[in-house]
Design brief:
heterodimer, A: alpha/beta, Rossmann fold, 17 helices, 43% helix, B: Rossmann fold, 3 domains, 5-stranded parallel β-sheet, 4-stranded parallel β-sheet, binds iron/sulfur cluster
Chain lengths: 446, 460
């Protein structure tokens, strides 16, 4: 079966066999059935969890309709973000420009909903017809006296990852707007968690138990006012390599706030994330509290995990997720429940990420960048994986091939972060891998 | 409350669509192309659009949905997407080996002004299209029409490309299917075969997006209208097109190109629309309506007779595509229910006129709106002003259903939170039976849950 595009050979690596460096962050090949999305998508998923802001999509109806409440990002208060507002550009406006419509729409919405800020996304078409979105935002901003922030996110300008950067730039406009300037002791911002299935609340609870103050959460369950004073935090914690690192770097530059990259998936990474903060503040009381917390959690967790580990030992997993950092955490988390990772790939990883993956994996593991369904299914079959961990487009492929699936993406239903998340993860993987349904499907070694 | 932002007072909105009741053209083109055997849909534009459309179809069908994208970059948006499409065609035929590539445009390539036809011609001249393989196309700018328009355009594109007339008419009827579920397409075929009508169905997504679990992933499942059938459709003696919005253009095309006379009928939802469908088909195919079909009709009537008191006067709000809404409204009226609020994102006066005909006497208080600004927000406002007993429409109604505690029957596209639509038809008399069963179940469950103990009844 020779289904690998020649141009893609440098984006697939088999540990122990291939030596080259991964070529990544490449645009998908024209004609490929890529699993990737666009810049707009990237910016939208990052900003969307700011729950007391207004999100309006300037463009034709589709871009908005498809991002209407697709991310299971929870709010403890306002639900304004869950509404889908669009200027629904029609042919006329595509020809004569959509500025008037945009102006009216935003003004009307601000009057009605009194949001704390407004994000105006422009999609591909707006980039082409040349509406001066920035000028309109400025004008409305002056008239209504709130921040109206343009998010220039034409999809063609790159991949989802580029959209993260666009989103970071938009958020950066809010940071530092509050008058406060004194750095708050023992305080952090949590960057890059989107509160899927309420994960952020778990994390907040851990840190608060340690005596850490959380100034803002960007963007999960996010609030505009918190972001405005986020420059008063002493430390930024950044999850995921992709989505928020840009903002962290920006804040380091402008406000001299150091940042640490962390991951909350799996026992190891979660514990490290807590200890790092305690160590950063070199506060012995905090370190003590952290170790008590970690010890208690792990003591409760390990026995609970044991039965799953026993059943899952030796089962094989394939990982194909958006961010590489997540993929790496997953490899570790899977190992903790006795499973081997035989395929690992991401949509947006960079060279270093792939090197790290290579280090973590056993020989023979297939490492992929920006894969497509044919490739994935080929390797999954070759490697006889028992479960695929991926996003919405991968789920049905996995099921068709008769293997289990775990959603580690937007459609996640259970919190997978933190210690509680590890148990949920084990349960989910177990339920899928061990489902009796597989006994009825044809043996998959063809 | 999730939609606590919906105010009761209805103000004139000029520029704003809130919670749109429609999606965009390309997704329709993609769905239609899936109903062609061995066909890979291809989205000529940026990656994002394609990714969204695939995800939405995947969420609706819980099936893998394959499609290529031209992966536009900044450069293509300036210089046009010709190079991308040429490369795509070559790559797709080499790697994914479909029989047909069905290219649709996006807002982006439309605005740039890419000429799909000319680019595909060029691909042919350059030898990028292997012998016996095909590239069909249609234009689908989203700022015109809705997903239904895209569906209609792709069906027309397929016919335009394949249908041929040899001059010899065959004893066969073309059935052009509007946007319905694979289950419905299967049911339409079942009805035709019960009637002994020799037919070709186009498009046909059964056995494509409802394919069985076999332990292997197949990029081109066994279903879909074949090339041979599409070619042969030019020799059929007649065409029956089900659903004006989605199929009329294709039917006209076929008549102009191959002299196949056509009739338009509604999607056969409910008693009368199914009556019309069956009658027209029997005339066109020159067959009689068999006992078995009459019995199905009789069973549906029997159930309605038994239960009509539970249906009487119940107020219904519905939303979706005109092709589905119109026969559904008719059916609701036949069930003695009151379709009081209707919105559809698909524009066009035709719809308002049809609804007017159906509703003006029987439900003079009914409110309906289609096209721009006919969205779920407006529907919700109407409901807040005077509530209804039942909601019928796609998944996006669940917010209203929860906030206002109204029973909710899922129908239409997309349904991303329930299963069943792929497997149980709503067309034909049996489909009607399923609708009635569902409606009754919803209404009676609510009654059982909420009625005072004194009027709680065992037998209903
Ligand atoms: S750009 Fe047009 S085609 Fe693409 S998702 Fe938006 S509305 Fe649909
Ligand atoms: S039009 Fe552009 S912004 Fe909208 S979905 Fe398509 S690629 Fe993304």
């Amino acid at each position: 079966m020779d289904t690998i595009l020649k141009d893609r050979q440098k984006q697939i690596l088999i540990k122990g066999k291939d030596q080259f460096q991964m070529e990544c962050a490449k645009a998908s090949l024209a004609g490929s059935v890529s699993q990737r999305a666009c810049v707009f998508c990237g910016s939208r998923v990052v900003l969307y969890p700011i729950v007391d802001a207004l999100h309006l999509i300037h463009g034709p109806v589709g871009c908005a309709a498809f991002t209407w409440d697709i991310r299971g990002s929870l709010s403890s208060g306002p639900q304004l973000h869950r509404l889908s507002f669009t200027t629904d550009l029609s042919e006329n406006e595509v020809i004569f420009g959509g500025e008037k419509k945009l102006y009216k729409a935003v003004s009307e919405l601000i009057d009605k909903h009194r949001p704390k800020a407004a994000f105006i996304y422009s999609t591909c078409i707006v980039g082409l017809i040349g509406d001066d979105v920035e000028a309109i935002c400025k004008k409305i901003s002056r008239e209504k006296n709130i921040e109206v922030i343009p998010v220039q996110a034409p999809g063609f300008a790159g991949t989802k990852k580029d959209g993260y950067k666009v989103a970071c730039d938009a958020i950066a406009q809010l940071v530092g707007m509050s008058k406060e300037s004194k750095t708050r002791p023992n305080s952090i911002n949590i960057l890059g968690d989107f509160n899927l299935a309420g994960e952020l609340w778990l994390l907040k609870d851990y840190y608060e138990q340690m005596g850490v103050e959380i100034v803002s959460t960007i963007t999960g369950d996010g609030r505009v006012d918190d972001i405005k004073r986020s420059h008063t935090a002493a430390l930024n914690l950044v999850q995921c390599s992709g989505s928020m690192i840009h903002l962290a770097k920006d804040m380091k530059e402008k406000y001299n706030i150091p940042f640490k990259r962390v991951s909350y998936f799996g026992i190891e990474d979660m514990s490290t994330a807590l200890y790092e903060v305690a160590r950063f503040f070199s506060n012995s009381e905090m370190i003590r509290k952290a170790s008590v917390l970690v010890k208690n959690e792990i003591n409760a967790l390990l026995p609970a995990l044991a039965p799953y580990k026993q059943k899952l030992a030796g089962k094989r997993a394939a990982i194909y997720v958006g961010g590489a950092f997540k993929a790496i955490s997953l490899i570790k988390a899977l190992r903790l429940i006795g499973m081997d990772t035989v395929i690992v790939g991401s949509q947006t990883g960079n060279k270093d990420d792939y090197l790290l993956m290579k280090e973590l994996c056993d020989a023979g593991t297939v490492i992929l960048d920006d894969s497509n369904p044919m490739e994935l299914s080929k390797f999954v079959q070759e490697k006889q994986a028992d479960i695929l961990i991926g996003g919405v487009k991968e789920r049905p492929i996995a099921y068709k091939m008769g293997l289990g699936f775990c959603d580690h993406n937007h459609e996640r239903k259970e919190a997978l972060a933190g210690y509680q998340g590890m148990i949920n993860f084990a349960k989910e993987v177990y339920a899928s891998v061990m489902s009796p349904v597989w006994q009825f499907t044809k043996p998959k070694s063809l | 409350m999730l939609l606590r932002h919906t105010p009761k007072e209805i103000k004139e909105r000029k520029a704003l669509t809130v919670n749109p009741a429609k999606t965009c053209q390309p997704i329709g083109a993609m769905y239609a192309a899936l109903g062609i055997h061995g066909c890979l849909p291809h989205s000529h534009g940026s990656q994002g659009c394609c990714s969204y459309h695939r995800s939405t179809l995947t969420r609706h069908y819980k099936e893998p949905v394959m499609a290529g994208t031209s992966s536009f970059t900044e450069g293509s948006s300036v210089f046009g997407g010709q190079a991308n499409l040429l490369a795509s065609i070559q790559n797709i035929f080499t790697i994914y080996e479909p029989e047909i590539i069905a290219v649709h445009s996006t807002c982006l390539s439309e605005t740039i002004g890419d000429d799909l036809k000319q680019i595909i011609e060029k691909a042919r001249e350059d030898g990028k299209i292997p012998l016996g393989r095909h590239v069909i196309h249609c234009n689908t700018p989203s700022y015109v029409g809705s997903h239904i328009t895209g569906y209609a355009n792709m069906v027309k594109g397929a016919i335009d490309y394949f249908a041929e007339s040899t001059g010899k008419k065959a004893d066969r009827v073309n059935l052009i299917s509007g946007w319905v579920e694979p289950s419905d397409m299967r049911e339409i075929k079942r009805i035709a075969s019960l009637m002994g009508a020799n037919s070709i169905l186009l498009p046909d997504t059964s056995d494509v997006v409802d394919s069985p679990q076999t332990g292997s992933f197949n990029m081109y499942p066994k279903g879909g209208t074949t090339i041979a059938d599409m070619v042969a459709s030019g020799d059929s003696k007649a065409t029956l097109a089900c659903g004006e919005w989605a199929t009329k253009d294709a039917a006209i095309k076929l008549e102009n190109k191959c002299k196949v006379p056509f009739e338009i009928t509604d999607i056969p939802i409910g008693i009368q629309a199914t009556d019309r469908f069956v009658t027209k088909l029997s005339k066109q195919a020159e067959v009689t309506i068999p006992e078995s079909i009459n019995n199905e009709r009789g069973r549906l009537l029997d159930v309605i007779t038994d239960m009509h008191q539970y249906l009487h006067g119940k107020r219904v709000a519905l939303w979706g595509d005109p092709d589905q809404i119109i026969p559904m409204v008719e059916f609701l009226l036949d069930l003695d229910m009151k379709p009081v609020y209707i919105v559809s994102g698909t524009p066009g006066k035709r719809m308002a006129n049809r609804l007017e005909e159906l509703l003006s006497e029987k439900v003079p208080e009914a409110k309906y709106k289609n096209g721009e600004l006919a969205d779920m927000f407006l529907l919700h406002q109407w409901i807040k002003n005077e509530p209804v007993d039942l909601l019928i429409g796609n998944t996006y109604g669940k917010y209203i259903s929860r906030d206002e505690q109204i029973p909710f029957l899922r129908m239409g596209f997309p349904i991303v939170d329930r299963i069943g639509h792929s497997y149980f038809p709503t067309v034909g008399y049996m489909g009607g039976l399923r609708i009635v069963e569902k409606i009754l179940g919803l209404l009676m469950d609510k009654q059982d849950a909420e009625c005072p103990e004194t009027s709680f009844e065992l037998v209903m």
